[in-house]
Design a protein that fits this description.
The complex is a heterodimer. Chain A is built from eleven helices and 22 strands. Chain A is an alpha/beta fold. Chain A has a seven-stranded parallel sheet, with helices on both faces. In chain A, α9 links the parallel β20 and β21. Chain A is globular. Chain B is an alpha/beta fold. Helix content of chain B is 29%, strand content 30%. In chain B, the strands form three sheets. In chain B, strands 11-10-9-12-8-1-6-7-13 form a nine-stranded mixed sheet, with helices on both faces. In chain B, β9 and β10 form a beta hairpin. The longest helix of chain B is centred in the last third of the chain and has 19 residues. Classes of the chains: A alpha/beta, B alpha/beta. Chains A and B meet through α5, α6, β11, β13 and β14 of A and α3, α4, β9, β10 and β11 of B. β14 of chain A pairs antiparallel with β14 of chain B, so a sheet runs across the interface.
Chain lengths: 401, 264
């Protein structure tokens, strides 16, 4: 077996326990003034190495890969769309991708798969892409896991991008995992920060873990492309500039790659909401504090006036007041709107995990001790059924609806 | 039908509290549980067995004490449990984890449907299910919220996408990742609990799996964590006092500009 990946240097360790406190996984213990790492719990995150003041913990460097990393150029963005409409997360990725490409002195490229989709290439160029790799085929009319990943694997192997970003959407997550496994590279999920390390030129990917209670900075040092899925609404959308120019490359793909074992039978657009919660700039959510299903109406009314999406806590979903697709939190969706209204939601840690990165959080709850107030930007202690309609009325005036 | 369910032991965050001074998780006394999404996977597998016959095998990768989640699944009706555990797996990212689990599933051999929870509540990546499918060259249906039909060689499942729902016809064997709406996990029966207590679990180490050691643990993981930190606290909220009308007016003043900018 290979050498232990992490070890304590007994001569340097003083048994101070700083490493024990630093470990997020309870994998370090000090016994008899000597630290020991439980490898079965350890994730090799390096928190203890950082915390040790005596250089007593060493992590073995990973065996370097065989790839020649210098062959990999450019920053790629997967252009996700639904029924020909480009998803806003794509523009957010182009916004961030432009910055990364400029920092590296590389081109920003979009990869666009679809049927009769070539007109969208100009939108991507207007939003900052220097090149668009286009695969226009009837088989690509809508997302299919196998076919889309086959095509992406093919173009990634051909052009060798340095960085490849996808939205952390249901489609992006299903797709990027397949591509990363097949091209044998690292993939970091649901990133909220992306930066280039000036010294190594590696992509530093920051993401929340443990429901947002821990942040981790992750790199893919020896493999390319460096792949990441990126959370909606965190990065700023690239502004369209119709005067920009770029090149479009039409790719030919072998027929055998365009076959799928799994087949769509039908697709039903969610009509219960006009706005998808993962994609919304404003979300109005209701929870147990509404007390009865009819009260959800006050939440919907405020959402209507604001053009917002309707969210819900687990309690409201479990009570059957609203479908599961609206649930925000650990067993629902993670959202990151500009403004989040929590109406009658107490703020359990599982709910906070799904919305705590919102820009502004407004909490309305009758219990002054509800934990939601600790995370809220603004709070009102009061009866939701009274306060929310007042808010709706005020905003109806302001927005003239 | 032989259904294989991949599950993970995670810390139970239901009772996790945050230390307000250090802004870190208070982990003392936090129990370990079956990842919440995996409960729906176990339940669905048992329902498939009850309908079509066959067997359910639960598979987990983790430390020796992760056998507790296998026993919990057996108490719910699973037939067998396999623990994949080895120090060589330390530091596995999603690439290495899905590689290891795929090797274990290959060793199981006669698998039909492989079911995973959508994602684990500690890592939240949603990458291991599709990763297993890819390592095994299988089709996948992710975010499954309903299974409409299962025959011997194919199934019809409904999955949740951001824009709506999609019904997919998929041949078996395949990998499904499942969400909460799928079912209501049962409580273990007394008989199930007895079976779980007596069950003899299978344990496989790296040497028991047909795989390249370079694909395991730290060496098999393309990603590397360079720093781990607690996010800055959001800063104590501002509670707006007064009568309802008054507090609403002062709230509107504060958020008006942001709302106008974001409203559709």
């Amino acid at each position: 077996m290979a050498e232990e990946p992490i070890k304590i240097i007994a001569e340097k360790c003083v048994g101070c326990s700083l490493c024990v406190k630093a470990c997020p996984f309870e994998a370090v213990a000090v016994d008899n003034k000597l630290a020991a790492v439980d490898l079965l719990k350890c994730t090799l995150c390096g928190a203890c190495v950082q915390a040790c003041r005596f250089d007593a913990i060493e992590m073995r460097a990973k065996t370097a890969g065989q790839q020649d990393l210098s062959l990999y150029r450019d920053v790629w963005v997967f252009a996700e769309h639904c029924e020909g409409k480009v998803n806003t997360v794509t523009y957010e990725l182009l916004g961030k991708g432009r910055k990364l490409a400029d920092d590296l002195g590389m081109d920003l490229c979009a990869v666009l798969l679809g049927k009769d989709i070539k007109d969208r290439a100009n939108d991507l160029i207007a939003r900052g892409a220097d090149k668009v790799y286009l695969v226009d085929r009837p088989e690509l009319e809508y997302f299919q896991d196998e076919i889309y990943s086959n095509v992406l694997i093919e173009v990634v192997n051909k052009y060798k991008p340095n960085i490849f970003l996808c939205g952390a959407t249901t489609v992006g997550r299903s797709l990027a995992s397949r591509v990363a496994v097949k091209v044998h590279t690292g993939l970091t999920a649901d990133c909220t920060g992306l930066d280039i390390d000036p010294a190594t030129k590696n992509l530093v990917q920051t993401r929340p873990a443990f429901g947002g209670n821990i942040m981790a900075a992750i790199i893919t040092p020896n493999h390319r492309p460096q792949m990441a899925t990126v959370r909606h609404k965190v990065m700023k959308e690239a502004v369209a500039d119709a005067g920009r120019s770029g090149r479009v490359f039409s790719e030919k793909i072998g027929e055998d790659l365009l076959k799928s074992l799994a087949k769509r039978v039908r697709f039903e657009k969610d009509t219960s909401t006009t706005v998808n919660i993962a994609d919304a700039d404003i979300i109005v959510s209701g929870g147990r504090g509404l007390l009865k299903p009819e009260s959800f109406l006050v939440v919907r009314e405020l959402a209507d006036v604001l053009g917002a999406a309707v969210g819900a806590s687990r309690a409201a979903v479990d009570a059957g007041w609203i479908p599961y697709s609206h649930q925000v939190g650990q067993t629902g969706k993670t959202v990151c709107p500009k403004i989040y209204f929590a109406c009658g939601i107490s703020g359990q840690i599982q709910h906070l995990a799904g919305m705590s990165s919102s820009d502004i959080i407004v909490a309305i709850n009758k219990d002054p001790d509800a934990p939601i107030f600790k995370s809220a930007t603004y709070g009102i202690v009061g009866d939701v059924l009274k306060v929310v309609p007042l808010l709706t009325a005020e905003f109806r005036k302001i927005l003239k609806k | 039908m032989h259904v294989v369910v991949c599950i993970k032991q995670v810390p139970d965050t239901t009772n996790v509290r945050i230390n307000p001074e250090t802004n870190t998780l208070i982990r003392a006394g936090v129990a370990s549980i079956v990842n919440p999404f995996d409960m729906y996977a176990i339940e669905e597998a048992v329902r498939i067995k009850e309908k079509l016959g066959g067997k359910v095998t639960v598979l987990t990768m983790g430390p020796p004490q992760a056998d507790a989640v296998l026993r919990e699944a057996i108490a719910m009706g699973a037939d067998a449990g396999i623990l994949v555990s080895d120090r060589a797996f330390a530091g596995s990212d999603t690439w290495a984890t899905s590689y290891t689990l795929a090797a274990a599933i290959r060793k199981i051999g006669d698998y039909g449907i492989i079911i995973c929870g959508k994602q684990a509540s500690d890592g939240d990546t949603a990458q291991v299910g599709p990763g297993i499918a890819t390592h095994l060259n299988l089709p996948q249906v992710t975010y499954v919220r309903k299974i409409d039909e299962i025959a011997g060689d194919h199934l019809v499942a409904e999955r949740m996408l951001d824009e709506g729902s999609e019904v997919i016809d998929c041949p078996v064997p395949c990998v499904l990742t499942v969400v909460k709406e799928l079912n209501e996990p049962r409580l273990p029966s007394l008989r199930g609990k007895m079976a779980a207590k007596k069950a003899e679990l299978v344990q496989w180490a790296a040497k028991d799996l047909e795989c390249d050691p370079k694909g395991l643990g730290l060496d098999g993981s393309p990603t590397k964590v360079v720093r781990i930190f607690t996010p800055p606290p959001r800063g104590g909220g501002q509670v707006l006092g007064g009568e309802a009308e008054e507090s609403v007016r002062s709230l509107v003043d504060k958020i008006k500009d942001a709302v106008i900018a974001a409203a559709r």
